[in-house]
Design brief:
The protein is mainly alpha-helical and 154 residues long. The chain is built from 6 helices and no strands.
């Protein structure tokens, strides 16, 4: 739900950022607005996942899946990070900065390798996904800041 709730915002940001870039205007403001709005939506959903996990699982999936309710918040957190990562990816595509693909490929490879070797429990997979998403997000933020710094020095 976290990913779908914020997906429309990301899709709306892409053409706006591309338009601003074509006009030689700074698209960073639209990125920041998108990040803030997505973070707010994700936070509300995460609070619901934390406070009412069993009730939400019952409504969405039924009684037979109640045992997954203890993981709902953690998966919501992972998908919140993924939503923010997808915003950065869309933004970089819109402004034609493609070096982020190296971070993405490295993160995907690390995720695959770690899950192949460490999959004894769902918690191991949750830790792997969260760690990779957090590291990838940090890398994308560093990349964004390097773009912003290099643009300021021109």
């Amino acid at each position: 739900i976290v990913l779908f709730a914020s997906g429309a915002i990301t899709q709306a940001m892409f053409p706006m950022a591309a338009y601003l870039m074509r006009r030689k205007k700074n698209p960073s403001k639209i990125l920041k607005q998108t990040l803030i709005l997505t973070s707010l939506i994700s936070s509300v959903i995460l609070i619901l996942y934390f406070v009412f996990p069993k009730y939400l699982v019952m409504i969405l999936f039924g009684q037979q899946y109640l045992e997954i309710s203890s993981y709902l918040f953690f998966f919501g957190l992972i998908f919140s990070l993924f939503s923010i990562i997808s915003i950065f990816i869309s933004f970089f595509l819109a402004i034609h900065k493609l070096k982020f693909v190296y971070f993405l490929a490295l993160a995907a490879l690390a995720e695959i390798c770690l899950i192949i070797f460490f999959h004894q429990s769902i918690l191991e997979i949750i830790y792997i996904l969260f760690s990779i998403m957090a590291i990838l997000l940090a890398g994308l933020i560093i990349y964004y800041r390097s773009l912003a710094l290099s643009a300021q020095t021109r």
